[in-house]
Amino acid sequence: MSNGQNGAELRLVTPGMAIGPSSGMRVGSGALAQNDTIIATRLGWVKQLNNTVSVDPINSAYMPRSGDLIVATVAEVRNNLWFMNVNGPFQGLLPMSLAPWKVEFGAARQHMGIGDVVLARVQEVDECHNVVLTMKGVGLRRLNQGSVHSVPITHIERLRGEGNATIQRLREACDCRIIVGENGRVWVDGDAEGIAWARQAIDLVQTSGHKKTFEAELSALENNAPKNGDA
Amino acid sequence: MAGYGDVKLLRDDGLRLDGRKIDEMRPVTIEAGILPAADGSAMVTHGLNVAVAAVYGPMEAHPRKIQRQDRAVIDVRYNMAPFSTSDRIRPGFNRRSREISKVTAEALESVVLVERYPRSKIRVEIEILAAEAGTRCVGLTAAAVALADAGIPMRDLIVGVASGKVEGTVVLDLDKAEDNYGQADLPVGILPNTGEVAFLQMDGDLSPEEFNLAMEYNFKAAAEIHLVMVDALKRRYEGGEN
After folding, report:
1. Chain A environment of B153 (Cβ under 8 Å)
2. What is the per-residue DSSP string for B128-157?
C-alpha cells in the first residue's frame, strides 16, 4: 500500500520517536504534538497525506464502529441480554430485542450460552464506548458449525484484498465459506481439509501480512490447496 | 557506611570484579514478539538477567470494580521463576513481587495513553527467568517493548536502569555482588526521548553529588538501551511494507 507516499520509502517509528516539526502540520492518529514536534505514539509506519501526519500501526486493538460486521462470542448471559466478546477493549451488549428470535424474559440462556459464536453487526457505539450489537439483518445469525480464527486488525485489508479479490481466491481454493469480521475474527466452514488449508492461509496473513513477500507466499500456498490437489 | 564486612568490589586498577569500568553496563539484548499467544511480547537479557514480558489487551476489565470510567487500568504481575536464582524461590506472590508489580504499573501508567481505553484493562505479565540484580529494571524494559509490540499507544518507550555505590564509588548497573554488598542502589525508569523520570527508588545513602552522578550514568545507559529496544522492534517487522 502506498498510503499517499507515492513510492517514498516508508518510515517505521516507535513510540516517542520524533516524526517532524508540528508547525503547519495536522496531527493524525497514532501521533501527538509535543513541544513543537510531532511524536509517534505507536509502533508503525509514518503516513503523510494532505498536511496530516499519522502513524499506521502495525498492531492495534479493535475499536468498534457503528455498522461493523463482526464475529462475536457470548461472554455472559443475563435474563434479557447477552454480553458479547467483540475482541476489543469493551464488551458488546446484545439485548433480546435485537436478537433474531422472540425471547421471553429470563429465557436468553435457552437461545445462546457462553461461548456461542454469532455473526452480528455493531448497531451503536456511544461516547462512553458502550457497544450495542444487533442480530437483526440479512445473514446475521448464530454460527453453529465451522471454526473461528484470528488475524491482526491491521491485516484484515490484506486478507480481503482489493475488492475482496484475495478472500474470494481463498474461498475458491479451499471450497469453504469464509467470513472476515471487522474485529479480526475469521469464520471458516467447509470440510476438514478445506478448513485446515484455510487456517494455514490465515496464519500466513498473521505472520507475513506486513511483508512484501506475502503475495508470493500466498500463491505458493495456493498451489497446495485441496481443490488443486483433487483436480 | 562501608557495606558488609570486607568484601572487595573494586580492583586496584579501578575496574570492577567482572572487568567492567565504573560507568559501563552489562551487555543487553532484546527480542520482540517471542510469544505467539500474547498480543505483544519481548525477551530481554541484561548481563545474566533474563526477563520475558507478555501483554494482553486492552480488554474488558474484570472484576468490574477495578474499572475506571475515564481510563484503562494496567494490571502488572511481576514474578520470579523458582529456578531464577541459586536458592529456590517459593512460587507465588510475595511482598517483594507485589511491590515491584505496583511500582511497575504506576511507571507504565505514566507513559501509556490510558485515557484512550476507558473501562478496560491492559494485562502485563513479567516473568524473570534468571536473576542477577536489577530485575525490576529489566522487567520494566521488557514490558515497554512488549507494550509497543502490542500496539498500545504510548508517549515514549520507558527504560529501566540502575546505578549504585560500592566502596564509596558511584558505579553504573550493579551486578549481584555489588547489589548485595554495595552501599546504595538507585533504580530508575527513564523516558529517553523527553528525559523524564517515571519511576525512582533508592536503597542506601547517596550524597547529592553522588546522586547526580548516578543519574548521569543512568541517563547515559538509558540512551544506549533505548537504541537496542528500537532495533528489536524494527527487526521484528523488517521486510515490511505496511
Report:
1. 15, 30, 41-42
2. EEE-SS-HHHHHHHHHHHHHHHTT--BSS-
Alpha helices by DSSP H, chain A: 108-111, 156-160, 165-174, 192-208, 214-222, 226-230
Q: Which residue of B has its CA nearest to A30?
A: B153
Q: State whether B194 and A16 contact (CB < 8 Å).
A: yes
Distance CA B234, CA B67 (A): 34
Q: Smallest CA–CA separation between B179 and chain A, in Å?
A: 31
- Is-contact A185 A198, C-beta < 8 A? no
Q: What is the ipTM of this complex?
A: 0.89
Task: Determine the CATH number of domain A69-143.
Answer: 2.40.50.140
Work out the minimum CA distance from B230 to partner chain A, whole angstroms. Answer: 7
**A106-132 pLDDT per residue, tens:** 888 889 999 999 999 999 998 888 999
Does residue B4 belong to any structural domain of this protein? no
pTM for the structure as a whole: 0.89
CA angle B143, B41, B153 (to 5 degrees): 65
| CATH match of A147-230 with 3.30.1370.10 | yes
- Amino acid B242: pLDDT: 45
